[in-house]
Design brief:
The chain is of the alpha/beta class. The protein has nine helices and seven strands, in the order αααβαβαβαβαβαβαβ. The protein has a seven-stranded mixed sheet, sandwiched between helices. Helix 7 links the parallel strand 4 and strand 5. Helix 2 crosses helix 5 and helix 4 packs parallel to helix 5. The radius of gyration is 18 Å and the shape is globular.
Length: 237
């Protein structure tokens, strides 16, 4: 499809980019052994969170939605740190899902469930309004070419849909290592009168919250002088 066609027929926003990857024997084994307990099949019905997590925590335990967890390194670490919270995690790629399942088994994590589907549709059909404690969106594809910026996930219509699913007082936490995208994220989040920036820094960007670990990829980038920007906004109404 050429650029003119793309303008005439804009693609709907998705939470992922198709990419290939090799599935390891360990990932396949993890899916076979514990997939039934930790994978939730996508459908168009609202998800009962208590049933989904088998009452692992208290019946009213908070739920955080993670969109696009990659290989699950940070997700598993956060779930260990915040073990009183249930994490509903969306990722479409087989290697990433397999890798997180492997970590779930290795660390005996009970507070993670995975939906292998586009998070935009999961959000629309499976999440009740005002039911989420928070949303994590870490290092979404930056679509760095200007002509592709319209494909970025963090845009006003998506954020408005996201806000409706978050409890009053709940939060949105985004992180990116692409400065131009960080600026756009800040602009989009600031536009909403239903959100407030938790950062007191004049830049508008937040210090990295204690629960978000540095991944190997991020550490490598920081050593090369690359920046990372966190944004944490709370829902007001």
């Amino acid at each position: 499809m050429n650029d003119s066609e793309d303008i005439l027929h804009p693609r709907s926003i998705r939470s992922f980019v198709k990419r290939s990857g090799r599935i390891t024997t360990g990932q396949i084994k993890a899916r076979a052994q514990i997939g039934r307990d930790f994978l939730i099949e996508y459908n168009a019905n609202v998800l009962n969170m208590q049933e989904a997590f088998n009452s692992h925590n208290a019946p009213d335990a908070p739920v955080v939605l993670e969109i696009g967890f990659g290989m699950g390194e940070a997700t598993a670490a956060i779930a260990q740190t915040l073990n009183h919270i249930n994490f509903l995690c969306c990722e479409v790629h087989d290697p990433g899902v397999g890798a997180l399942l492997k970590r779930v088994g290795e660390f005996n994590l009970k507070n993670i469930r995975i939906i292998q589907h586009d998070a935009v549709q999961v959000l629309e059909h499976m999440i009740e309004p005002s039911s989420l404690e928070g949303v994590h969106i870490f290092f979404p594809d930056p679509w760095h070419k200007k002509k592709h910026n319209k494909r970025r996930l963090i845009q006003t219509p998506f954020i408005n849909a996201l806000i409706s699913k978050i409890k009053v007082g709940g939060y949105i936490h985004c992180a990116t290592d692409w400065e131009a995208y960080a600026v756009q994220m800040l602009e989009v989040l600031n536009e909403s009168s239903r959100l407030v920036n938790t950062s007191e820094d004049p830049s508008g960007f937040a210090l990295k919250p204690h629960y978000r670990p540095l991944t190997k990829f991020e550490n490598r980038g920081l050593k090369l002088g690359h920046g990372v920007w966190d944004l944490v906004f709370k829902r007001l109404s």
